[in-house]
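Fold this sequence, please.
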Amino acid sequence: MLKIFFIFFLCAVSYKLSAQADSSNLTATHYDIDSLTKIYGIKKHLLKEFELQTLIALSYYPELINEHIIFKYSDINSTGQTTVTFGSIFKKINKQYIIFINNNILRTGFLLADAPFDAQVAMLGHELAHVADFKSRGFFSMLWWGINYLVVKQRTVIEISTDASTIRHGLGWPLYSWADFVLNHSNATKRYKKMRETKYMLPDEIIEYISRHNL
């Protein structure tokens, strides 16, 4: 009897996770870009190629509605990178942020455009989680963050914490899609995959976090 109950429990959990994944699947046809722009496009400079994906990601961060965020392409060693403009470092409020998106395929082996739609939303959502973190930091807190990010072990703590924030904002299953794509389905370089494996949540860790926190 106990064995039958255990099997039933596993099937129920599996069904629940599957249903959550399906209900959280993001597709372009579900959204009206004009409505999203009116609400979430304020003070935002978006990349045309990822306009809808970015607006969807922004919709999960209502606290960033009035923040000035610039999205731009750059030749960087990761898919995305978030920073605060120099003048904004000294401000407690009204900061300006820049989210860089890599446009050199030689750096990572693939580009953001190669990922599934929901994975693109999650990657942008991860960068927005950095913005949400920076939003509450003053000059010395930002300085301390920057120093910590230069330390490999602390960088891992920061990025995993940022993944957790992305999940708590409602992008858990898209983040799973992003991590799974990068590690298992992309043409990412060995260096990039190694970086992803050691500094960010793995796909099974994302599922475990979603389940443990009932998100």
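Residues 15 and 30 are 24 Å apart (CA to CA). The two ends are 31 Å apart (CA to CA).
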